[in-house]
Design goal:
five-stranded mixed β-sheet; Glutaredoxin; Thiol peroxidase; TPX; single chain; redox-active center; Redoxin; peroxidase; 30% strand
């Protein structure tokens, strides 16, 4: 049975249900399969040996998600080749590609959790009511252990960018 968590998150003040476990720093990062594009999948193992900053957004076509992805794209240049920044949403791969092209996003890798919502369920961020992934941040070390976890309690708020970047820098 899939775990459901209530009372932990809201969207504009209205309660929402998160599906999946609440992960913590020190936990093994769960594997997942998401779409790179229509025909190609991606998983955690594709980024083996790298520090992974996983930025989760409900949809790139909203203001906070747009700002969050642009912020991490600009930070990426200073983090070096040992770090990969993944933005995961339930947007279709076509929409992600269109948005990245229009926004000039070239350092962040966008991945779609649309098909199976495997990432959302494994990381405890799938919003039952909307079939979107809740805004959150996960920093995964080179050995696939979670070094930093931020679950936002309100979907419309920004994550703590500075804390996420500091967690990445501590692993370098």
């Amino acid at each position: 049975m899939t775990q459901e968590r209530t009372g932990v998150a809201t969207f504009k003040g209205n309660p929402i249900t998160l599906v999946g476990p609440k992960l913590q720093a020190g936990d093994a990062a769960p594997d997942f399969v998401v779409s790179k594009n229509l025909l190609e999948d991606s998983s955690l193992s594709d980024y083996a040996g790298k520090i992974k900053l996983i930025s989760v957004v409900p949809s790139l076509d909203t203001g906070v998600c747009d700002a969050q992805t642009r912020r991490f794209n600009s930070e990426a240049a200073e983090l070096g080749d040992d770090v990969v920044i993944l933005t995961i949403s339930t947007d279709l791969p076509f929409a992600q590609a269109r948005w990245c092209g229009a926004a000039g996003i070239d350092r962040v890798i966008t991945l779609s959790d649309h098909k199976e919502t495997a990432f959302g369920q494994a990381y405890g961020v799938l919003i039952k009511e909307f079939r979107l992934d809740m805004r959150s941040i996960f920093v995964v070390d080179k050995n696939d252990k979670l070094a930093y976890v931020e679950y936002l309690s309100e979907m419309a708020e920004h994550p703590n960018y500075e804390a996420a970047i500091a967690a990445v820098k501590e692993l370098l």
